[in-house]
Amino acid sequence: RNLLPEDARTPPETRGMDAKSVTPGAVALILANPTPESPDDVPEIVVQVLDLKPIGSRFTFMASDGEAKVKAILSTHFASEVHSGKLQNLGLVRILNYTCNDIPQKTDKMVIITKCEVVSQALDAEIKSEVKIEEPAALMKPKEEAAVLSKPIGGAPAAIMLKPRHDVKSASQIVSEQRGNAAPAARLAMTRRVHPLISLNPYQGNWVIKVRVTSKGNLRSYRNARGEGHVFNVELTDEDGTQIQATMFNEPAKKFYPVFELGKVYYISKGSLRIANKQFKTVQNDYEMTLNENAVVEEAEGESFIPPVQYNFVKIDMLGPYVGGRELVDIIGVVQSVSPTLSIRRKIDNESIPKRDIVVADDSNKTVTISLWNDLATTVGEELLDMVDSAPIIAVKSLKVSDFQGVSVSTVGKSTLVINPELPETEKLRAWYESEGKGTALASVGAGMGASNAGGLRSMYSDRVFLSHITSDPNLGQDKPVFFSLYANISNIKPDQTMWYRACTTCNKKVTEALGSGFWCEGCQKNYEQCSLRCTSW
DNA sequence: CCCCCCCC
């Protein structure tokens, strides 16, 4: 392990906002010490930010010391610094902790910055040093690192002496030592450095992560064309807030199901990573993890707590694009009504499942029906029924959006519901409800669509339209009416070739709007309150 | 390798 001697480091008290330039040789310093154990092992490193750009929810840039450059990626939690304008392109940042993403057979190194501070906002130009240096020490193989001597560059520390590390113990080492009876494999894993989740990749398997179980799925069995088996998923979150989904199959699924507990913290090693299928992604990570029988999972004791749930609330009037999709949504709203519990018989196996419908409203001035299932229907639903008169606010995580009644939502196995959550949104909603919502007759988000579609084509979004209960499916032919809803991109609909008209829900013939209300159907010779929307071509 | 999640 490569470390700077104490006197080569800049004392923390001199690390201020006063640095006006980069640390000469900074890139070489980083690459010579690719995985510092803690911020104490990181010398003064100030780099200039070049080519700052977003990649997904994160930002990358080229970290420049005026001479050499290295690709850098900022942990997700620095995104706000960029958005706020504090961290700017051409600005200076002091790197306080980092880890290098070491992909074998790849020459381009990447520094993952886990801690940094802004030293200066954008300078006028890119800093370019006149000094030429030779190959950075970085290109050496790990075994050769032990005796690196860095070159004196400008005003940089004269010599970078390296010493074996024995002075700083990582938390995992301490835990490891306290647990002398751990399995040898586990103990070995523990003595290694804890990697930030963001640094993991499919090409390098030698890591240990320290993560909290922030979602635990059921141990399910499945049967399909490829065979049958058992499967079990967890969502893991590290201290940077990076998340990954881990999957176990068959024996490992059974083995680890009782090991992983919601809210507990674990050291994990010897898992494998693969590119996550975008279609089924439940967390923000390009990769997903598989744990097989060789995986090492060790609880970090004394660190258990139920983490604050991270919500991504969708306003009720914005549920449309999620209809029929796989993406689950979170909703926060005021409970307006709670139905009795019903027993629903599942078609596939005749099993009875308790269900309860509740109606919630939010400050988009819309309501939506939420179907609660199982425990959420019985226990939680009963609690809601008891307090419905006080208009409780609920936060529901992981809801499936369907087109029933135009738009409605339903809990799934992993859904959670919190009554009167301590969130800023709760206060906002309460204020809205008291001042406005309570005294207003709010419409269901699905009203005017679905069975009660009387309004024709509704354009809710700039790039798409919501069509509900179209009575002709172009795949089935005009004469075979079906009922379905969809969101279609406007670009897929050719306005000049498309005729929209209102059709009778009974005979599917064109109807005319009746005087007063409803629709007159010539075919039925009857007045209807509802009609459907039909299109003659796609 | 799952990715289903119930009923109208």
From TrEMBL:
One of its GO terms (cellular component) is nucleus. Keywords: DNA damage, DNA recombination, DNA repair, DNA replication, DNA-binding, Metal-binding, Nucleus, Zinc, Zinc-finger. Residues 483-534 form the Replication factor A C-terminal domain. Residues 327-420 form the Replication protein A OB domain. Transmembrane segments: none annotated. One of its GO terms (molecular function) is DNA binding. Residues 22-120 form the Replication factor-A protein 1 N-terminal domain. GO terms for biological process: DNA recombination; DNA repair; DNA replication. Its main location: nucleus. The keyword Zinc-finger applies. Residues 195-299 form the Replication protein A 70 kDa DNA-binding subunit B/D first OB fold domain. It is found in: Nucleus. Gene3D superfamilies: Nucleic acid-binding proteins. Pfam families: DUF223, Rep-A_N, Rep_fac-A_C, REPA_OB_2. Belongs to the replication factor A protein 1 family. Component of the replication protein A complex (RPA) required for DNA recombination, repair and replication. The activity of RPA is mediated by single-stranded DNA binding and protein interactions. Probably involved in repair of double-strand DNA breaks (DSBs) induced by genotoxic stresses. Heterotrimer of RPA1, RPA2 and RPA3 (canonical replication protein A complex). This is Replication protein A subunit. It comes from Aegilops tauschii subsp. strangulata (Goatgrass).
